[in-house]
Design brief:
This protein is 40% helix and 19% strand. It has eleven helices and nine strands. The strands form two sheets. A seven-stranded mixed β-sheet has the order 3-2-1-4-5-9-8, with helices on both faces. Strands 6-7 form a two-stranded antiparallel sheet.
Length: 284
């Protein structure tokens, strides 16, 4: 992809987040809920425990509203919060004060960040926002210290795209549960009630002129069946850079919109839709 095209995509993301940053946490019940936060805390604690004696230094690549940074600070990590959005960086500075350093990124590489600086580079729900998500791995390797770890998390795995898989079954079960919910107001059951929801009309009009708005409203790039994060290519590049993949962990994400018992049932069946990958730069 030409550099100019990449820069245009990044500029679009920045424009989108000028509005979306204020409601980002409300729009993502699959991230900002106790179950996912506990899972994330455990994953990060495991990663921090694998680095050399500290306190370790971490780069939160694509900090957003500070989700990963908050967890790392609780673990005693010194954090550099980096993002393309000045609005997110401003929010992070207000939230954490002088507890973190902030860096504005260009969305293409990590220019300005020195070589071999960080014990951990964490990218949570970020790769699909980067125009060249494979190329950024070269930059991640560059800024990692020898022995440092790259932590990639909360990106969909191949099971997410299966038309006949358990993820589709779970969605159907959730939809059925909504239809069966008691009470006089249930637009899922009483479909005529949907005509009484003004936001439905606004969304329909917007999607008519911009079919990709639902994801594009946050500048997402690689979120489509024909264009998404391909883990085989990620692993291939990491191996090519000399990094050792230590952990690949697939899991079923929990959303606050899910009935917890249904999510637990499908999780116990081994259903997954997301992946975590941890790789290490060799110490020598």
């Amino acid at each position: 992809m030409p550099r100019q095209t990449q820069l245009e995509q990044v500029a679009n993301s920045i424009r989108r987040y000028a509005r979306a940053h204020r409601r980002y946490e409300r729009r993502h019940p699959e991230i900002f809920n106790p179950i996912e936060q506990e899972r994330l805390r455990g994953e990060l604690a495991e990663v921090v425990g694998k680095v050399a004696a500290g306190p370790p230094r971490a780069l939160d690549l694509g900090v957003g509203s500070g989700n990963v940074t908050a967890q790392l600070l609780r673990l005693g990590v010194r954090v550099t919060a980096a993002d393309v959005s000045p609005h997110f960086l401003s929010l992070v500075r207000r939230r954490f004060g002088t507890g973190v350093d902030t860096v504005r990124l260009n969305g293409i590489d990590l220019v300005g960040l020195p070589d071999a600086t960080y014990d951990i580079v964490a990218a949570y729900s970020v790769l699909h926002h980067i125009p060249d998500y494979i190329g950024i791995l070269d930059e991640i390797e560059r800024v990692l210290r020898p022995g440092g770890l790259v932590y990639l998390d909360h990106e969909v795995n191949d099971e997410f795209w299966r038309k006949d898989g358990c993820v589709v079954e779970l969605r159907r079960a959730v939809a059925k549960r909504k239809v069966e919910a008691p009470g006089p107001w249930n637009p899922e059951r009483w479909r005529w009630q949907r005509f009484l929801i003004p936001s439905k009309y606004a969304m329909a009009i917007r999607l008519k002129f911009d079919p990709e708005y639902f994801f594009g409203s946050e500048g997402d790039i690689h979120t489509w069946e024909h264009d998404h994060v391909e883990w085989s290519k990620v692993e291939e590049r990491l191996h090519g850079l000399g990094l050792d993949v230590e952990t690949i962990r697939d899991y079923l994400h929990f959303s606050a919109e899910y009935p917890e018992d249904l999510w637990q049932e499908y999780r116990d069946r081994g259903c997954t839709d997301m992946r975590t990958l941890v790789a290490r730069r060799p110490a020598h």
